[in-house]
Design brief:
The chain is an alpha+beta fold. Helix content is 19%, strand content 20%. A hairpin with a 5-residue loop joins strand 1 and strand 2. 20% of the residues are buried.
């Protein structure tokens, strides 16, 4: 299996089995090797340390990494030994995530476009002290952004379709990962994945 598997996502649970972050397979192996975490087998919830995990046979079709003397299955879920805190993950404020939050729709006219013809508008313009944040930035088509210019929404005679808000913490597990793994369903419910943004 190619070394690109090492950049695949692994779900990390705290010692109370609550999801707290997503890390790379490489990082997961490091924590396992140092004894900071154990692998969770999602089907039976069995726990494995590094040695017992690396001794397991690899089912046909499953991802693995090639070690010096053996192949080792990719851990998809790990649980930390000493971590009981639950730091609510926050979605990183990035251009890509802003487009995802607003579903590639202009927040003034509602037109859905490709990212090439969309821009980011500051509701309170930067020249008026507006900051780059979840609650002050929206996706806008080029025409609406040009129409609004450096004015406030009401000054431009425009209206937002919905108030900009920070995405719920639950989105952090989907916005940073292109594909979620079926094994994660045991630890993060379907309702958790399908949380809608507040209107």
């Amino acid at each position: 299996m190619e070394s690109t598997c090492l950049t695949d996502p692994t779900l990390v649970l705290n010692k109370n089995w609550l999801p707290i972050q997503v890390c790379s397979v490489r990082r997961a192996f490091t924590m396992l090797f140092k004894g900071l975490a154990r692998v969770v087998e999602p089907q039976g919830y069995s726990l494995y340390d590094f040695d017992s995990w690396s001794d397991l046979a690899i089912p046909r079709g499953e991802s693995f990494v090639q070690g010096v003397s053996r192949r080792i299955r990719i851990p998809e879920v790990i649980v930390l030994h000493g971590c009981d805190r639950f730091n609510r993950p926050r979605v990183a404020f990035t251009r890509r995530n802003l487009f995802r939050r607003d579903r590639n729709c202009c927040q003034y006219c509602g037109k859905k476009c490709s990212t090439e013809v969309l821009s980011i508008d500051h509701v309170i313009p930067r020249c008026a002290g507006g900051e780059g944040s979840w609650t002050n930035c929206v996706v806008a088509c080029l025409a609406c952004n040009a129409r609004k210019g450096g004015r406030l929404v009401r000054e431009a005679g425009m209206q937002l379709l919905r108030e900009p808000v920070e995405p719920p913490a639950q989105s952090a597990f989907t916005l940073h990962v292109n594909r979620r793994k079926a094994s994660w369903e045991h630890f993060v419910s379907e309702a958790y994945w399908n949380t809608e943004l507040k209107p």
